[in-house]
Write a structure and sequence with these properties.
The protein is of the alpha/beta class. The chain is built from 15 helices and 13 strands. It holds the Pfam family Epimerase_2.
């Protein structure tokens, strides 16, 4: 059997790669090895436990105050050793993290072919998102196979002279993961169970991106505060990122309001289910732009551009920027206009139907045969 190694290091990567690992393990056609870098330690471990994945290798690189350069150096060195020991027939990487870029580079040095899951996303601004935009561009230049979620992603790759024969449209594996964990009768076992989801318009807020630190984040949070103050039916749930910068700004602007729940980060299962129970989602995340439409939830993106234009074109996502007034107006329109809300809630999700992992498995079999 051909040996396939997967590598990932952050929570979003783990969520999107977990169903693929399970698919490859279950079909018995590949010798599957799992390596984690633990670029995010605690949040990664939560996902591994949920999906019952036991890594063969754990580089455990996370250190307090780590920089992008630190992460790159430790992943590159760690993967050199792992690849020398295992000599896989292909290394599967995901998306655009520093783990992805450094692992792909290590595989190139070791002359191990790379398969890029979630390939072809582009914002066309190398500093936004930072460093993700350049991570995925460099990974594309190394990869042997490109598993693109959408036709638009394929067009991006073709524009960069990637061979058409190396690209396949699969949908996004995050839909596979999401649909496996969301349950209508889910119970959180904490204060989230006390929210009246039937009569309140619950806004799920996530905000953590490096480029939003400082004044942009303050503007976003002021807009959320206004939304709560002016709409009695609105409640906000904000699972705060562990970064102290994010937490300090959140507590300063959003703290002390009974209808704003500043809570600790959620494991993937409760997070997926709070998405399912929410009315709208306000985020600067990338992955949520793909997940929420599968649940019929409108998404307001608090960034100046998105590398997921398919969602904007489909009408499931609206890019609001980071200015207080524009963020407030975008959210307020969805809260107060049923027509605008339904337009977005009923739009068709462009990221697939939950069979991405099966499609990737099929493409791998074609490649090796």
């Amino acid at each position: 059997m051909k040996k396939i190694m997967t590598v990932f290091g952050t929570r979003p990567e783990a969520i999107k790669m977990a169903p693929l690992v399970k698919e490859l393990q279950s079909n018995g056609q590949f010798d599957v090895k799992v390596c984690v870098t633990a670029q995010h330690r605690q949040m990664l471990d939560m996902v591994l436990q949920l999906f019952d994945i036991k890594p063969d290798y754990d580089l455990d690189i996370m250190q307090h105050g780590q920089t992008i350069t630190d992460i790159t150096n430790r992943v590159l060195k760690g993967m050199e050793s792992v690849l020398q020991q295992e000599r896989p027939d292909m290394l599967l990487v995901h998306g655009d993290t520093t783990t992805t870029f450094a692992s792909a580079l290590a595989a190139f040095y070791a002359k191990v072919p790379v398969g890029h899951v979630e390939a072809g996303l582009r914002s066309n601004n190398k500093y936004s998102p930072y460093p993700e935009e350049m991570n995925r561009r460099i990974t594309s230049s190394i990869a042997e196979l490109h598993f693109a979620p959408t036709v638009g992603n394929v067009e991006n790759l073709l524009a960069e002279n990637v061979a058409k024969s190396s690209i396949s449209v699969t949908g996004n594996t995050v839909i596979d993961a999401l649909l496996s964990v969301v349950k209508e009768d889910y119970r959180f076992g904490n204060e989230l169970d006390e929210i009246d989801y039937n009569n309140k318009k619950v806004v799920l807020l996530t905000c953590h991106r490096r480029e939003n630190w400082g004044e942009p984040m303050k503007s976003i949070f002021r807009a959320v505060k206004r939304l709560v103050n002016e709409n009695e039916e609105v409640e906000v749930v904000f699972p705060m990122h562990l970064n102290p910068t994010v937490r300090d700004i959140a507590r300063e602007i959003l703290g002390g309001d009974r209808r704003i729940h500043l809570i600790e980060p959620l494991d993937y299962e409760p997070f997926a289910n709070i998405m399912g129970k929410s009315y709208i989602i306000m985020t600067d995340s990338g992955g949520i732009q793909e997940e929420a439409p599968a649940l019929g939830k409108p998404v307001i993106v608090m960034r100046t551009e998105t590398e997921r234009p398919e969602a904007v074109q489909a009408g499931t996502v609206k890019v609001a920027g980071v200015e207080e007034e524009s963020v407030y107006e975008a959210a307020s329109e969805l809260i107060n206009s049923e027509l605008e809300y339904l337009k977005m809630a009923r739009a068709v999700n462009p990221y697939g139907d939950g069979t991405a992992c099966q499609k990737i498995n099929t493409e791998l079999l074609k490649y090796f045969k």
